[in-house]
Amino acid sequence: MSDSGTSPRTYPQPPIERAGFVENYLYGCAPVAECGVCAALAEELAAVRRDKEYSRAYDAAAEIRNHPHPARAPRAASRPAILRAEGGDGDVSGA
Prior knowledge:
The protein is about 45% helix and about 0% strand. The protein is mostly helical.
């Protein structure tokens, strides 16, 4: 009878460490450059990571990832089609 239940499992090689993988997964985010909210959250993220408050760091990174940024329409597309075609200035009163 084998005694496999009491001996620890061994492996032929040491475990693979993925340097930075967990850090990037938990705290990776891309704040938008022109957004004041993203800038404030990025500062908070840097501060709490420096202080090793990992729970708060994850929350700040998640908030940056989830912060909405509405897509802006290109300027030419925001004007009515008739004005673009005529080169008008937006005055549609006919005067």
